[in-house]
Structure formats: C-alpha cells, structure tokens
Write the structure tokens for this entry.
Amino acid sequence: MPSPLGRVVPLIAWTAALLGLASAKTVTYDFKIGWVTANPDGAFDRPTIGINGEWPIPPIVADIGDNIVVHATNDLGNQSTSLHFHGLFMNGTTQMDGPAQVSQCPIIPGSSFTYNFTITQPGTYWYHSHTNAQYPDGLRGPLIIHDPKSPFLNESYQQENEIILTVSDWYHDQMQDMLPGFISKGNPTGAEPVPQAALFNDTQNLKIPVKPGTTYHFRMVNMGAFAGQYIWFEGHNMTILEVDGVYHQPAEAEMIYLSAAQRCSFLLTTKNDTSANYAFVASMDTSLFDSMPPDLNWNVTGWLVYDDTKETPEPATVDDLDGVVFDDFTLVPYDNQTLFVKPDREVELNVIMDNLADGANYAFFDNITYKAPAVPSLYTALSAGDMATNPTVYGSYTHAFVLERGEIVQIVVNNLDSGRHPFHLHGHHFQAVYRSEDEAGTFEDSNVTEADFPATPMRRDTFVLYPDGFIVIRFRADNPGVWLFHCHIEWHVASGLIATFVEAPLDLQKSISIPQDHYDVCAAQNIPIAGNAAGNTVNFLDLTGEPKSPDTLPDGFTTRGEVALAFSCLSGILGVIVVAWYGLAPDATDASWVEKRTGETQAAESVERSSGATGAEPEVIEITAVSGGGQGKA
C-alpha cells in the first residue's frame, strides 16, 4: 500500500503549483479514464477506475473566474462513463453538468467528450462519474476553487497552509457486480451493501505533518457512496468557514457530520509545543446499515504529526467522546442573505421504499421511481419548441417539474422511510429553511409555519433528511437548465430516488448550443438527440415506447390470484381436517388398545359360532406400527 504521507504531499503540491493561476483564463485537463489495480485499505486488490493510469485521481484546482476545460476519453473498455462537477452551478452551460441521459449521452468506451465551463463561485467541491452508480469504483476526486477575495484569506489563514482532506467509504467488490443483487427479488427489503472500510485521502493511517502554532485551512470532502461520517480531531477544535461552497459566519465545532457528497472548510490551529502527536478520526454512521458485519472496522484514523519520532496514539472511539455533533442548520451565511418569502411554486415529495412486480425494492418520490428517458432530458427541452414547458414531454418516469425563470421554489421532502437521506440539488445552492427531528411525521401534519423559519437560513447544496421526518428548502430559479434533485446515497440513485427540475426551457432554447462531440457520442450508440422521452419527434405528448420501470404490484387480487387464494384456503381447511383425524386415531402401538381390539374380535367370533354360522372365514386384523398412530389393514 502506498505511503499515507504520500497522499498529502501531492495534494499540497497541486494546490501550490496552481496558486499563480489568478491571471490565467483557461485551466486544461486531459483525462484518460481507465482501469488500474488498487488496494487502499491493504486488504484486497481490486480493479479501480483511475485517470491517466493513476489512482487516486488528481484534484481539479482553479481560481474563481477561470475557464476549465476537461478532455475526457473513455478507455475503460467495458463501461460507459460521464463526469459531474458536484456543486458547480454551470451558469449558462447546463450541457456540461454531466449526468448521463439528463444533460448528455453517456461516453461509451473509445469515445471522447469535452467539458468546457467558466467558474463563477469559490469553494470546496468534487467531481465524479454520474453514470450507472460508477463513482464508488474510484472515479471521484476533489475540485477546489480558490478565491483571492475570500474574507478569510490572509486574515485567518495563509494560502500555503491549505490542506485537502477527503473521506470515503470503500467496497472490495465492483458496483456492477453488486447492483444486480441489490436491486433484485433476493433483496426485497432493499438492504444496501455495507462498505468494507473507510479511507482518508484514499488510504489508511494517514499522517499529516504540521508545524506548531500554525492555523491550517482544511478543505474536507465526503466522496463516499453510502456512509455519512462523524469527524473529530483529538485535542483540537475546528472553526467552520464554508459548507458546500457557501461562506458562513465562523462557528466552532468539536465534531462534525458529513453525509455522502457534503463538504466543509474549516480552520484548525495547532498547539505551541511538539510533545505529542494527535489522532483524527472519521467514524462511519452505522445507523445507515441494515446489518453490521462482525469484522467491520467503521473507523479510519489519521494523525496530525508534530514530531515524527514520537508515537502515533490510539484514538478514542466516538462513544468515549463528550463532544456534541455540530448542527449545520445553525450556521449563518456570511452574506446574511435573508429568507426567501412567499414561494411562487411549492413542490412536495414523499420518500418511499417499496417493491415492484419484479419483486425488487425500489426508491420512490411519491409513486414514481426514476427511469432514464430514451432522449437526454436537456435535448428534449431544446427540441420540443413551446411544448418544452409541458412536463409530460420529459416522460412518466423522470418526475419532471418545469419552473419559470425567477420563481421562488419551495421543496418539502417528507421521509416515509426509517433511514437518513442526503438530498442534493444540481445547479443551485438552496436555503435550508427547516429540518424536523427524527420521527416528526410529515410537514402537512406538523404545526410548522413561516414564523418557525430562520431569518437568515444557512445555504448549501446537500442537506440531510432525518428518519421519518421532513425538510423544507427554498431556492430562486435563476439558472436555466435541467437539474436533478436526488438522494446522494448512490444505492438510492440506482434504485430511482430522483426528480428533475427543468428551469426556463424556452430561455434555454435561445441561449445554449450543444457541441458536436456531445452529439457524436450519442450517434455512436444510436441514442436520439431530439424528441420526447420516448424519442417521438412528431407528437411530443405520445410517450409510446418510453423506457419504463417495472409494473407496480396490484392493489388487490387479480382473478388468477383470487382463484389461487380460494384453492389455497380449501387445501388448508382439508389439511387441518386430515391432521385432526390423523391425530385422533388410536395408537396401533398401544398394547391396551391391541388387547381390547383382540377381545372384541374373539367375542364376535363366539357370537357367530353360537348362532350356527358356518363357512365364514374369521376376520384377520393385521396391525402395522406407524409413527404417530396406528393403521388397520384388512
């Protein structure tokens, strides 16, 4: 396994090398996406998706205002791919957002695709595959956008003291091997596979060298597929400055929680002496797991190394700590943006986990589990003319909502499930207006009113919904595009917990164009680039032939089911009668019963003789012992 220290030095070097890019206008990356072999937890060699023959994959680093160009070539050979730049608004370039069959066609093996977009926001982000639940196989890395005008730079920290720190869960099996078993009738409860390990910077036992009396700026990203992480630094506190790319008023924390896809930027000031090294820990949120493998180590440990000649101490466990997990809902945005009032559009979504007719468990918003359309939704919006404002054209299974430009949109998500869900909105930050406690029920049944909402709500792009509770978020529809809203547990993305927001589609038709190489990857796999969700360009309201999810289970019994039930009931009744008769029969092995039956037979024979009966053969009784009773055979 590579040296843990080697995971920190390249990231710092990448950051330092790109510090002088403030005057640069274009930052270009050439990515050849292919298979490598990796063993980050030292337990199991496995195929992993790398870039340019290496893994971990490189961070993307730029300054606000830069233009980023990524030339992506798929050298995987056996899987399609795409890249999503998580948290970036993609203002004016929704075609660069990355989800397959939403803003582009998947990039098939042997094809190339160029992403070209301008950075309009600073902060801590990440990039990852957005095709077929692929990113947990390794295609995910940090994306850092520096801000020379940051209110904290030079005042609270120096740029050279910035450290990128990623955390993630890790599976020993490939996603394409696990998915068929996950979404199958053999897993009717929808139990998600439990990771085998947790990682810091894609390794374990990470050591970060630090200097005494120094303030470091940590940029932390949870790139995991499933597990949220509790994170703490022993002997040190964190001062939160930014979450999900949004500056907030500094807030001190002993322990933070990052769900899959969330980010947090914080300051950490080291001690003035070098007498000891200190552990820092990420502990997976095991409440998300349906089962706990006995050999699972749900913690990963790293160390702040003041003196590499001294020992690295064992960390405390999460149960041993007195610290309270910081509640991100209490953050106040640095710009003091006030609450969006009187929403123009209200969307209410219920999270449901249920089975369909194939016996597998799926994830639903209301009664819809997502199924990708035949035509990427963006291409439908661009080709539908005035019909683009009709949500029907985007299909029955994309759960599409069409928004007008400038609308204030409120989304209420009610969790009718017993697990946590981190919900992510593409193309926007949103105001986190309300989050209930566990088991609070639905928003409609609560007594929550506008008066309960904060005057200056915190903002981010990924927000955790608690079990059997609800959240309320608001955003302004000021970014024309096609944007997904989905749970960022990758198993739930795969099982359909996705909705689609189509924002100002008529404006899109006037403002963007699709590059030829984007259309080329569609042509290479015969995916249509115009038409409704079924590919119909003649009648956009005719969805005949659209991709569908499996049929729903019937509400009641079908005729065949009723007949089957009747025969089952009849068979059951007859079975009970037979068992009762069988159980009440005398026991042929009981000596008293044999003696009595023999006496009755002899008495009968005596009567026959006394009555002068002749020529009749005597009755012979053969006794056969049978377990559980007796059986007479003449």
Remarks:
- The helical segments are 5-17, 175-182, 377-383, 490-494, 505-511, 516-523, 559-584, 591-610.
- The two ends are 81 Å apart (CA to CA).
